[in-house]
Structures are given as structure tokens and as C-alpha cells.
Amino acid sequence: MLLEAFENSSLSSSVGFALVESQLIYAQMLPNPEIISGDLQSLPLYTIQLGVPQYLHKSLPLDSFIRTSFLFLVSGFLVIKMVSRRVFFVLVFFLHLLVFSQSLDFHVHKKPKIKGPIKTLVVLVMENRSFDHILGWMKSARPEIDGLTGKESNRVSVSDPDSAEVFVSDDALFVDSDPGHSFQAIKEQIFGSENISANPAPMSGFVQQAESMGGGMSKTVMSGFKPAVLPVYTALANEFAVFDRWFASVPSSTQPNRFYVHSATSHGASSNVQKDLIQGFPQKTIFDSLDENDLSFAIYYQNIPTTLFFKNLRKLKHVNRFQSYKTKFKLHAKLGKLPNYAMIEQRYFDVELFPANDDHPSHDVAVGQKFVKEVYETLRSSPQWNETAMLIVYDEHGGFYDHVPTPVSGVPNPDGIIGPDPFYFRFDRLGVRVPAILVSPWIEKGTVIHEPNGPTTYSQFEHSSIPATVKKLFNLKSNFLTKRDAWAGTFDSYFYFRDTPRGDCPERLPEVVTSLRPRGPKEDVSLSEFQAELIQLASQLNGDHIFNTYPDIGKSMTVGQANWYAEDAVARFLEAGRVALRAGANESAIVTMRPSLTSRTAVGDYGQYLQSH
């Protein structure tokens, strides 16, 4: 009952609430509020009409009169039978007018002026491919690129100089299985043994590690794509800039590296950490810095945004930053309404109707090419094009060979945190080199970007270069996020080699006609490690993480089931947040959803996992 919910809450603070699927969600305006639910079944609809107008909580702090007036009206719920409905709504109307007039005095922001040529930076982070695997064979036509010559190789046994030698090839095909890319596997790929003292790193253990997985994986990890097979990347690299010295931030898997993209640290995670996946990672992100500086950002997602692994981004204040790529990205670009910083997230689940476009094995890279082409052409036709840059980068190498030694010295630990056992990684060396392409009308055609020019002798381009560059591009007054982005190379200088933007940038990129996948998506297969992590995130968003079977929720799901589960979880979480925000809940609150599996779902919809509930 609503009355019971209010009687059990603290009425000494303002209260907001929202209706979500016959639940009342309300939040106390406290430093660390919780959003809980109550029953609405017996309540008249008008009792949920009252809410803090959007401009109220955008204009804090308020004077005590407004706070008291608002609390008075909220408390009116408890005595609503003592006044007429008409009088009640007259009071609400006049309070809205009062707050609006006061808000004009409280919160007048002047948007910061960005002095440089780039007003919008768009970032795409693709999945699990090395530089040599994707772009290495471009060297045949572009010798200034540090790519492949055909002479690069690894032996089957690093310790046996007489063992078979496997050379690189340009016949990359559809990869049906996932090469090794755990922390331990990558250490073997880089060093070939437990001895990690070699500097430069020998990059000698890719074949040896792949052989341990069987199934002819060694030839797979040593193969690369012909430039003609990846026409979109070939065109972009020729028309704009390619980095041949961009490294993953951590010699590990997807999530730690994606964390560096946004926060210049993984907060000690060298692999998946289940507890933190539930609670949300606490570190400050570049999104927080942008918000502090009154600059705009948006996350355009397709089925589930990985950025929701960060606790701060789950707050109500950011709920409207999450926008559907399908319905909003092209519209915003067409209207010239793209934000200062746009993160575009891919489709991570490979289903028949909407195949995955993130390039993660075993997904079709042709679909990824079509996705990048779509994003580029959308930006190219936008009225914001002449003030826009786009960065395409891969999170980590995914187990594929690369010949350039990964930096193993001079790399600062970002925040002093040491990784968990058994490795106790100190975050003092980088991961394997990955593809990175920079696109803008301010970039000279055919640019190749090698090592950065500082800020230190040992600085490198790695994922922390993204927040570091954002800070410089937009002149953020906030401090660097960690020691790592303060150290990382930045690419802002490449936008200043011209006085005017180019007028010859292609409006269209080549069509993608080659698909190397012999069949369509397989929806009935089990999840990859990355996809399982996304389902753990989804279960947190919709409240299912409270069950004792977490974190095994995804083990019995198929890809098709997981896709539907993830999309549903995100939709419910964001909609609950928007309703709560409109109703006046504290912007710092985080929605805690009632579990979905017991209340909304028939057994079997998400796999055998549900049968115990």
C-alpha cells in the first residue's frame, strides 16, 4: 500500500516516486538513497500525478521555502481525503509556477566554448582482433605502415628451435571458435614462457598457445585479411589516418580493456570480477568529467550498453544519456544534435534478425564492416561533419598474432591497485597491438600515426589515450582520471595540421559484398565469456542477481535467449529510471528493480536456469 510505504519512510526529506508495471518506486533525497517498491493496486491514479518538475532537480540547491513547500505537498498524500481534489491540484499548479520562477535564478548555465576544430568525438570499440590480423597486410600497398611482410612466424614449441614453424598468411577466413585471450593465455603468447623479463617482448608464443587448444587454431591465429576483404577499413585507412602503434591497455580480456577506454583504469580487474559486476565499478569516468564541465555525451546502444558496468552511469541523472542507436543516432546526426562525445555500442549477440556487428569471433566481420560504413556515412551527411572526428579501435587482440612487441616497461600503474590472485598483476605493461583508425575532415589523407610525441619518453597510444584526448580537445578543467591517462599519448594534434576541413572526403564507402561465413547466425549455441558477462550485467539491471544461482544465470541460455533477456532488462531498467526521474526522484539514486524471473516470465523462456524459481 502506498500509505504503508510512506509511513515506513523518512518524511523529513523530499520524496519522489514513479509508476513502473504496477509498482510504486520512490526515492528519498538522501546522499545514498535506495529506490524501493510498494503496491499500487488499490490506489487511485491521481495519487501518482505529483512529481518534481524536471527543472526543480536541475536547479539545486533550492532555498528552504521551496523545499518546505514541496514537502508539504508530498505529505498531502497522507491527508488527501481532507481536501478536495480541485484544491489539491490548484496547489500543485501554483507550486510548479513558483519553482519555475525560482529555477531561473538558481541555475543559469553558459555552455563552455570549445576553441578547437572538433566539437564532437564519436568512438566505436570493436571486439577481439589484432592489428596484423585486420590491417597487417595493408603494408603491401602502404609500406609506411608497420604491417606484415610474410616472413613473420612462430614455432610450435618456443623452447624447441627445431619444432615446426607456422608463418603468417593472408587467407583469414571465418573464425568459428574463439582463440585464447585470458590473462594467462596472453602471457604465453607474448613471452612464450613464464619468464616475463624479456624486453622487447618476443611475441613468440601465439602458435604454442593456440596448439594447446587444438582444432588447427595455430593457423587461424597466424592468418590475416586481405585488404580487399575489408573494403571499409581499407578505404578509411587510405582516406584518413591509421595508428600502427595503438595497444590494448591490459594484457587481458574484454572488460578490463573497455574500462580503460572510459576510465583509464580497470580498478584492479585483470579479468571478470563477479562482485563488481553486480555492484558496478566505482571509478570516475570520462563521462563524469564531461558532466562536470557541462559538456554533453550520449551512449547509443543496440542491445545492451557495456558502459552500465560503471555504477555512476546507472544513476538517474544519466538515464537519458542512453539512446537507441537504431532510432536516435541517425536522427540526431541529421538534425545536427549529436553530443560532444558519443559512444556507439555494437550488437553483441548474433541472432538471425539482427546479426552481431562487433567482430567478436565467431561473428561475421562483413557485418561489422557494414556497421562501420553506416556510422561513417551517417556522420558524413550530418551538418556537424566539419566539426566531427570518429575513432574506431578494438578492445583487445582476441588471441590473434601481432609481431610488434608490446611495451613492458615505463607503463604506470593507474591508481596503485594490484590485481587479485593468482597473478597479482601490477598493471605496468600493456596488451597486444590492436587496429585503430582516426576519421575527420581535419585529417590529411593517407596519414600514418606511429608513436606519440609525449607526454613522456615512454608514452604510448592505448585506450587511456581516449579520455586523455577528450580532456585536451574540450579543455576540461577536471583532473586526469588516473596516472595512466596523464601518461598516455593523445591524438588531438592531428586535427591542427590544416587551416580548413577537407572538402574531398568520400560521401560513400565501398559496398561490402564478401561474407566469409558459410552460414547465418547460430542462435542455439552457448554464450561466449563476454556474452555471459553481459547477461550478468542484465541480471543486475532487472534484479535477478539476488538469486543464489547468480552468476551462473547465462550458462544454460542460448545466444537467442540471451539477446532477448538482455534487451528486455535494459528496456525495463531505463524506463523505470525515466519514470522515476520524471516523478522527481533524486538524480543520484539508482533504480533497484524487482526480480523479473519470478514475476514476469514463464519457465523456459530463458533456459533451464529458471526451473528452480
Task: Explain what you see.
Strands 10-9-11-4-12-13-7-14 form an 8-stranded mixed sheet, sandwiched between helices. It has a 3-stranded antiparallel sheet with strand order 1-2-3. Helix 3 packs antiparallel against helix 4 and helix 17 packs parallel to helix 18. The chain has 613 residues and is of the alpha/beta class. It is globular, with a radius of gyration of 26 Å. The chain has 18 helices and 15 strands. The protein has a domain of 270 residues: Alkaline Phosphatase, subunit A (3-Layer(aba) Sandwich). Helices cover 29% and strands 10% of the residues.
List keywords for this structure.
29% helix, globular, eight-stranded mixed beta sheet, three-stranded antiparallel beta sheet, alpha/beta, Alkaline Phosphatase, subunit A, secreted, 15 strands, 613 residues, Phospholipase C, phosphoric ester hydrolase activity, disordered N terminus, signal
Largest sheet: 8 strands, mixed
Strand content: 5-15%
Work out the radius of gyration.
26 Å
CATH class of the domain at 120-131 and 230-398 and 407-495: Alpha Beta
Q: If you average the pLDDT, what whole number results?
A: 83
Number of continuous helical runs? 18
Helix content: 25-40%
Quantity of strands, as a count: 15
In terms of quaternary structure, the protein is single chain
Gross morphology: globular
In the CATH hierarchy, what is the superfamily of the domain at 120-131 and 230-398 and 407-495? Alkaline Phosphatase, subunit A
Give the end-to-end Cα distance, rounded to a whole number of Å: 26 Å
Pfam families: Phosphoesterase
Transmembrane segments: 64-80, 87-104
Keywords: Hydrolase, Membrane, Secreted, Signal, Transmembrane, Transmembrane helix
GO molecular function: phosphoric ester hydrolase activity
